[in-house]
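TICKET: design request
STATUS: open
ATTACHED STRUCTURE:
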């Protein structure tokens, strides 16, 4: 299979980022989108607003080669040939133009029929994270576009850096747009900050399952990772959803190596009875301050776990590079969100955080969840 059309551009990329714009309107909050891309590297999209922000390991490349390819359908997989890969949804409006641009530099345009697309952005030939030592370090990129038929996006691939370390995710000192009260879960409102939410495509939103879970923490990633599981959970009676949330949180704690801790045992027992677990915020801080019990390096501490419990309970983190997460901290988040008064929110949230704990082994968890959802 070959691309329908290919065109090459040489973009002056600066500030470590470039944009794919499919909408002629300029009313998207680009700074909010950039903030999300820094937390959920290496890219973020604004869905039907037609904008993708892509982060580059290099601070700049004023002669960056980008091959843009249009395909009839998903092209052959070749991720092993690239150091960074990400996929995002992109809508092209009636102006029929994809614009490639970077801050302060001259944009380029590519003719493209209006509609919904998946954009795969791949880069290679990186030399270092940050300032590459020259303004033309030689990295090259490729953008492949094909019609979005509702298929799942593939998880991103990140370059580990010249020293083998993962890129640092942007962190904040406190929660934004959340009204969670962790000391008293009876008053907990799991309200999402809008800019933190990955966007369901219009086609996905035609699915009643996506409609039912759209605003819940982790819903987008739970849905795209296993749509059948999400559907089964949505269709369970409320009591079964609550039971599944409790069971999932327990499994997450066992997988994270904290299942035998007294607080965890007490919290799981209380949640099963519909009673709030005490001192969740204090226990979360204690767990994330300690070394990860299941990490091969006993001195390993979390690099990307949320700053605090409030922030964590609204974190929509993708499932790539979970090796660098503090699994025990995410297991505690699974317990706390399983205590939500909304049983569907509890189940979806618990599954989301358990997925982060299980990482590449989440397929086994999903098999067990599907069996329990029968």
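STATUS: resolved
RESOLUTION: sequence designed for all positions
ATTACHED SEQUENCE:
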């Amino acid at each position: 299979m070959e691309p329908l059309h290919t065109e090459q551009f040489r973009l002056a990329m600066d500030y470590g980022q470039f944009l794919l714009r499919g909408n002629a309107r300029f009313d998207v909050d680009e700074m909010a989108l950039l903030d999300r891309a820094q937390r959920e590297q290496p890219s973020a999209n604004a869905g039907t607003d037609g904008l993708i922000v892509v982060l580059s390991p290099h601070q700049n490349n004023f002669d960056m080669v980008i091959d843009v390819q249009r395909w009839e359908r998903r092209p052959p997989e070749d991720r092993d040939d690239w150091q960074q890969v990400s996929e995002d949804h992109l809508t092209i409006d009636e102006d029929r133009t994809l614009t490639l641009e970077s801050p302060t530099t001259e944009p380029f345009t590519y003719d493209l029929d209006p509609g919904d697309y998946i954009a795969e952005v791949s880069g290679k030939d990186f030399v270092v994270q940050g300032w590459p030592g020259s303004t033309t370090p030689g990295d090259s990129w490729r953008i492949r576009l094909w019609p979005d038929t509702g298929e799942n996006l593939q998880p991103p691939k990140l370059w580990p850096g010249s020293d083998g370390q993962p890129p640092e995710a942007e962190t904040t000192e406190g929660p934004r747009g959340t009204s969670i009260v962790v000391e008293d879960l009876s008053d907990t409102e799991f309200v999402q900050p809008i800019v933190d939410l990955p966007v369901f495509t219009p086609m996905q939103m035609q699915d009643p399952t996506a409609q039912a879970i759209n605003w819940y923490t982790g819903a987008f990633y739970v849905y795209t990772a296993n749509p059948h599981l999400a559907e089964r959970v949505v269709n369970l009676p409320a009591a079964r959803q609550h039971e599944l949330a409790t069971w999932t949180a327990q499994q997450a704690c066992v997988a994270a190596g904290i299942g035998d801790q007294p607080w965890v045992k007490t919290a799981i027992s209380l949640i099963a009875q519909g009673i709030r677990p005490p001192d969740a915020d204090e226990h979360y801080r204690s767990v994330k301050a300690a070394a990860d019990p299941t990490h091969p390096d006993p001195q390993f501490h979390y690099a990307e776990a949320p700053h605090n419990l409030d922030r964590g309970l609204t974190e929509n983190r993708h499932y790539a590079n979970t090796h660098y997460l503090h699994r025990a901290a995410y297991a505690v988040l699974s317990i706390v969100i399983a205590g939500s008064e909304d049983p569907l929110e509890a189940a979806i949230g618990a599954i989301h955080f358990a997925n982060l704990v299980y990482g590449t082994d989440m397929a086994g968890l999903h098999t067990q969840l599907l069996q329990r959802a029968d």
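CLOSING REMARK: Residues 169-197 have pLDDT under 50 and may be disordered. DSSP finds eleven helices and ten strands in the chain.
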